[in-house]
From TrEMBL:
Record flagged with keyword Manganese: no
Keyword Mitochondrion appears in the UniProt entry: no
Keyword annotations of the record: Transferase
MF annotations from Gene Ontology: transferase activity, transferring alkyl or aryl (other than methyl) groups
InterPro entries, alphabetized: UPP_synth-like, UPP_synth-like_sf
UniProt name for this protein: Undecaprenyl diphosphate synthase
UniProt-listed SUPFAM superfamilies: Undecaprenyl diphosphate synthase
Amino acid sequence: FAYAEIWITQDFWPDFRKKHLLQALVDYQKRERRFGDIYPQGDQN
């Protein structure tokens, strides 16, 4: 199956540094991913 997420920064690509990549990874880890499901896990009937 196909699945994608997007992360947007205010910085331009030439200014993108390691700190920006690390921030993207931290932000991604905080997300509640449902992979297309509309209910949080455990709330399904």
